[in-house]
């Protein structure tokens, strides 16, 4: 008979280090709390999550339904339907003038699985990955999940949040395995200049470039793809943001030749294939969704101006207009130093969802991120509701600050 010594409860419930290494995604935590409040009857203005309030374009929904009804319900090639991979290659040529063979496109159920596969491909335990901060929360979480170490380089709002090669070079060690850059960036909305990307590519490390917000840029700003500066870059992209298709779950990686077989094997094992009928929606988006994207972009530009003016009027600090994506990262310190506590208080009391800046790294503490892909009506309701509660928070914050000043030992030189 097998030795059946029972495990203690703590042994039984021990989780692997990689699961423990992941931090909560705070934008999702706020959204999930907001959903619970909505189930109890509250009306929430969702400015926390990076999600267009627009419906997906009609051509996209029609193509998806048609594919579903037409029996496109089986597995596909693990790397995606060749028709979609070809359409993505054509779209990449159209947007950036870069020729990419369709074989270099690996389709996935959202950009997130593609991101997981690329980090899994490159990062061994103990490897370091460099990224600018403030940053998209999942980058360090995925790096840690793979046993790696995220190494952050501060970027400066006044310098357009550029991830300068010189600053990156200073933190490179023999364990550095890759550099991550996002442009247009979440949460800053900043676009990395062509020379910034060129400088990063010249550092001779794999460049992972998250371009999911390309196409959502304002005032005629031009986005450079990492593919324009390096054949060896890993590009992450998807349909969630540009085409308002968050719930479809469709994304892709464009990878260098040498990585393709490994990514294919990972995709076969981890996911088998992306949703087949959703891939038909993706083809329709690329072929017929251009006008819808133009309309949404024009609306976002107006909403950006509306929310920036409104937030400034309420006392938030916004050093410069975001150039792309649909976020504004605002200095909220006069209302509360702890961004997580502040975001939850605004949700509970004002029924406004925002993302705490600390989600984007220590550099984001004291800030709140507002998403302006919500409708104009939602944005106006949120501003009005914030206006009713912020003066009280500001007063409380000022009171706390002056009480701290009065505390014995708080002033310099007395201890
Ligand atoms: C910078 C960035 N990359 C990737 C993603 C993930 O997108 P997807 O919905 O395609 O998984 C997001 C979602 O918010 C994002 O902001």
Key descriptive features of the protein:
alpha/beta; Aspartate Aminotransferase, domain 1; Aspartate Aminotransferase, domain 2; seven-stranded mixed sheet; three-stranded antiparallel sheet; 14 helices; 12 strands; disordered C terminus; binds pyridoxal-5'-phosphate
List the helices and strands and how they pair.
Elements: H1 9-12, H2 17-21, H3 26-39, E1 45-46, H4 58-69, H5 82-96, E2 105-108, H6 111-122, E3 128-133, H7 138-145, E4 149-154, H8 165-171, E5 176-182, H9 194-201, E6 207-210, E7 234-238, E8 251-254, H10 260-270, H11 276-288, H12 290-314, E9 327-331, H13 339-350, E10 352-353, E11 355-356, E12 367-371, H14 376-406
Parallel strand pairs: 1-10, 3-4, 3-5, 5-6, 6-7
Antiparallel strand pairs: 2-8, 7-8, 9-12, 11-12
Helix pairs in contact: 3-13, 4-11, 5-11, 12-14
Bound molecules: pyridoxal-5'-phosphate (PLP).
Unreliable residue stretches: 409-415
User: Distance between termini?
Assistant: 68 Å
Hey, roughly how much beta strand do the residues contain?
Answer: 5-15%
Largest sheet, in brief, is: 7 strands, mixed
| Strand line-up across the major sheet | 2-8-7-6-5-3-4
Tally of separate domains: 2
What are the secondary-structure elements, in order, as H or E? HHHEHHEHEHEHEHEEEHHHEHEEEH
Structural class of the secondary elements?
A: alpha/beta
Rounded radius of gyration (Å) = 23 Å
Q: What is the helix tally? A: 14
């Amino acid at each position: 008979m097998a030795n059946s010594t029972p495990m203690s409860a703590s042994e039984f419930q021990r989780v692997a280090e990689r699961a423990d290494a992941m931090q909560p995604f705070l934008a999702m935590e706020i959204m999930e709390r907001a959903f619970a409040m909505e189930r109890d009857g509250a009306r929430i203005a969702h400015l926390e999550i990076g999600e267009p309030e627009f419906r997906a374009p009609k051509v996209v929904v029609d193509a998806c339904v048609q594919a579903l009804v037409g029996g496109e319900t089986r597995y596909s090639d693990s790397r995606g339907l060749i028709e979609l991979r070809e359409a993505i290659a054509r779209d990449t040529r159209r947007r950036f003038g870069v020729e990419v063979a369709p074989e270099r496109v690996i389709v996935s159920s959202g950009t997130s699985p593609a991101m997981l596969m690329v980090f899994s491909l490159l990062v061994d335990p103990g490897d370091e990955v460099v990224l600018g901060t403030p940053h998209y929360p999942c980058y360090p979480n995925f790096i840690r999940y793979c046993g790696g170490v995220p190494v952050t380089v501060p970027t400066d709002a006044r310098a357009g949040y550029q991830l300068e090669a010189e600053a990156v070079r200073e933190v490179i060690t023999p364990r550095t395995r890759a550099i991550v850059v996002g442009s247009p960036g979440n949460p800053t909305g900043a676009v990395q200049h062509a020379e910034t990307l060129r400088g990063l590519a010249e550092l001779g490390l794999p460049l992972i470039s998250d371009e999911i917000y390309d196409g959502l840029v304002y005032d005629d700003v031009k986005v450079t793809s990492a593919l324009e500066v390096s054949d060896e870059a890993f590009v992450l992209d998807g349909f969630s943001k540009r085409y308002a298709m968050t719930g479809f779950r469709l994304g892709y990686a464009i990878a260098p030749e040498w990585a393709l077989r490994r990514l294919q094997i990972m995709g076969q094992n981890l996911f088998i294939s992306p949703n087949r009928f959703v891939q038909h929606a993706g083809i329709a988006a690329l072929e017929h969704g251009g006008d819808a994207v133009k309309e949404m972009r024009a609306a976002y530009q107006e909403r950006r101006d509306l929310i920036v003016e409104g937030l400034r009027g309420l006392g938030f600090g916004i050093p410069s207009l975001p150039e792309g994506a649909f976020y504004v990262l605002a200095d909220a310190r006069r209302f509360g130093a702890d961004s997580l506590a502040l975001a939850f208080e605004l949700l509970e009391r004002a029924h406004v969802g925002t993302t705490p800046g600390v989600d984007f790294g220590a550099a984001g503490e004291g800030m709140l991120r507002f998403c302006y892909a919500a409708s104009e009506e939602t944005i106006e309701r949120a501003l009005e509701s914030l206006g009713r509660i912020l003066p009280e928070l500001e007063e409380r914050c000022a009171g706390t600050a002056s009480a701290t000043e009065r505390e014995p030992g708080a002033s310099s030189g007395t201890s």
